[in-house]
């Protein structure tokens, strides 16, 4: 039976073409959602998605009148709902609140279509709670959802006989069948175990064999990996054949520090890339950055400070001059650029080593947009913690970082590792676990 799906504003911001993903059903966008999308077009964070959503809906006008409804591909019937009956809301809910207007529109459609299942789709938890309380069937937008609890961690432990273990240690390579494996995802790190002994390798999908790590123990801009997970991360970061890397881990696991170190090493020392570009999404806590004093650079400084802190640490570790002077020097030479992600959206990503930090605050579409804009000789690193999300409409299962790690699993030009072991102080480690 055909269903009627009513889309909340945040769904269109999350996925501007969401209306095309309800095959065989009717999709309704309330006029209040159109108005909200219009307001969001000028915002730096939501603007790009809002504009795509507007253009997508505008393209449907060529088919017919949106108020009457138009037929789209995949047997989808789309329309914009103009009607709204505030009397359907309980007196306790304010009539001039946009969310409540969307709810009253939904109740009206539900009343007119008692023979059909009417579903309000929203990524706003409170909207779903209010809808449920009003007797509306509500759902999250699940098209690009990935189960974070089942996320591939990038490594695989394998127990092997002593003769096989010795052979690998001696030669540095091993056929899959010798390790008792069928076909793990490309670039999976294999933990070969024999009793108390353990050796590490990476699956080369092209040659169909396990090979010794090339860069795991490398000195990267004065830094060496402190644990096995960090060794795996370094190997991915330094491998020129891998173009996209996702590093997932809680604060203190070293994911961003290692990414920055690898970027500096390959841009400044080895000259493998033209530039190191480090970007973070702006997710203000409290007031928007427009309320902050000072120039644009001053306003952005609190959000970019963690990157500067990492460079400070690396500079001290390498016995270089002060971190700020290192940054200024590299920027003046055109080798380093640190900026808010807002400023690189909508333009081609320059050839270079690109780090997108705090990527868990991006939607799958935003991640896809970044990757598809990358040019030749570009390597992109996404780092973040899906359990620490500031975007109110994303969670561990729906954010772009989790989505990217899962969707690129098995591709020869991509690699992923989940870091679980913290390398900060004992106090910081306990706080990350318990507080």
Topology (elements, then pairings):
Layout: E1 3-7, H1 9-14, E2 26-30, H2 31-40, H3 47-59, E3 70-72, E4 76-81, H4 98-112, E5 117-121, H5 125-133, E6 137-139, E7 155-159, H6 162-171, E8 173-175, E9 189-194, E10 197-204, E11 209-212, H7 228-238, E12 244-249, H8 255-269, E13 276-280, H9 296-317, H10 323-332, E14 336-340, E15 353-356, H11 364-372, E16 379-384, H12 400-407, E17 414-419, H13 426-434
Parallel strand pairs: 1-2, 1-5, 2-4, 5-6, 7-9, 12-16, 12-17, 13-14, 13-15, 15-16
Antiparallel strand pairs: 3-4, 8-11, 9-10, 10-11
Explain the overall architecture.
In the N-terminal section; belongs to the PINc/VapC protein family. Pfam families: PhoH (PF02562), PIN_4 (PF13638). The protein is an alpha/beta fold and 435 residues long. The protein has helices at residues 9-14, 31-40, 47-59, 98-112, 125-133, 162-171, 228-238, 255-269, 296-317, 323-332, 364-372, 400-407, 426-434; strands spanning 3-7, 26-30, 70-72, 76-81, 117-121, 137-139, 155-159, 173-175, 189-194, 197-204, 209-212, 244-249, 276-280, 336-340, 353-356, 379-384, 414-419. The strands form 3 sheets. The chain has a 6-stranded mixed β-sheet with strand order 3-4-2-1-5-6. A 6-stranded parallel β-sheet has the order 14-13-15-16-12-17, with helices on both faces. The model has no long low-confidence stretch (mean pLDDT 90).
Mean pLDDT: 90
What is the end-to-end distance?
A: 47 Å
The number of helices is 13
Please identify the structural class as seen in this structure.
Answer: alpha/beta
Strand content of the residues, in percent? 15-25%
Q: Can you tell me the residue ranges where pLDDT is under 50 for at least 5 consecutive residues?
A: none
Which strands sit side by side, in order, in the main sheet?
A: 3-4-2-1-5-6
Shape: globular
Number of strands: 17
Approximate helicity band:
25-40%
Main sheet attributes: strand count, strand direction, barrel closure: 6 strands, mixed
Radius of gyration: 25 Å
Order of helices and strands: EHEHHEEHEHEEHEEEEHEHEHHEEHEHEH
InterPro entries: P-loop_NTPase, PhoH, PhoH2-like, PIN-like_dom_sf, PIN_dom
Keywords: ATP-binding, Nucleotide-binding
Domain PIN: 3-129
GO cellular component, one term: cytosol
């Amino acid at each position: 039976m055909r269903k009627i799906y009513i889309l909340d504003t945040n769904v269109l911001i999350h996925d501007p073409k969401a209306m095309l993903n309800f095959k065989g059903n009717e999709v309704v966008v309330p006029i209040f959602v159109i108005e909200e999308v219009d307001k969001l077009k000028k915002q730096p964070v939501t603007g790009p998605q809002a504009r795509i959503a507007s253009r997508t809906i505008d393209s449907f006008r060529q088919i017919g009148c949106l108020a009457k409804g138009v037929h789209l591909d995949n047997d989808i019937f789309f329309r914009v709902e103009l009607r709204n009956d505030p009397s359907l809301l309980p007196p306790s809910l304010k009539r001039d609140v946009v969310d409540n207007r969307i709810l009253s529109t939904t109740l009206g459609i539900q009343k007119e279509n008692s023979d059909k299942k009417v579903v309000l789709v929203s990524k706003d938890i409170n909207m779903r709670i209010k809808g449920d309380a009003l007797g509306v069937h509500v759902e999250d937008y699940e098209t690009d959802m990935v189960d974070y609890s089942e996320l591939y961690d990038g490594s695989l432990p394998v127990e092997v006989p002593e003769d096989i273990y010795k052979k690998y240690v001696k030669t540095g390579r091993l056929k899959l069948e010798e390790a008792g494996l069928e076909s793990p995802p490309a670039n999976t790190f294999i933990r070969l175990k024999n009793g108390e002994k353990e050796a590490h390798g990476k699956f080369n999908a092209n040659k169909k064999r396990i090979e010794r790590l090339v860069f795991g123990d490398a000195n990267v801009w004065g830094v060496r990996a402190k644990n096995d997970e960090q060794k795996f991360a370094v190997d991915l970061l330094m491998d020129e054949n891998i173009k996209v890397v996702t590093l997932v881990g809680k604060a203190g696991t070293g994911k961003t520090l290692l990414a920055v170190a690898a970027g500096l090493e390959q841009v400044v020392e080895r000259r493998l890339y033209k530039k190191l570009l480090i970007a973070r999404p702006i997710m203000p806590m409290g007031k928007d950055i427009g309320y902050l004093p000072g120039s644009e650079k001053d306003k952005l400084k609190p959000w970019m400070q963690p990157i500067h802190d990492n460079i400070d640490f690396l500079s001290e570790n390498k016995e270089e001059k002060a971190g700020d002077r290192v940054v200024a020097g590299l920027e003046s030479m055109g080798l380093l650029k640190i900026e808010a992600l807002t400023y690189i959206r909508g333009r081609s990503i320059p050839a270079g080593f690109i780090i997108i930090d705090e990527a868990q605050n991006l939607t799958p579409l935003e991640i896809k947009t970044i990757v598809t804009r990358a040019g030749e000789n570009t390597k992109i690193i996404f780092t973040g913690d899906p359990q620490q999300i500031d975007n109110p409409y994303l969670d561990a299962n729906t954010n772009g970082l989790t989505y990217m790690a899962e969707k690129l699993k098995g591709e020869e030009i991509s690699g992923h590792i989940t870091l679980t072991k913290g390398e900060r102080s004992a106090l910081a480690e306990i706080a990350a676990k318990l507080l």
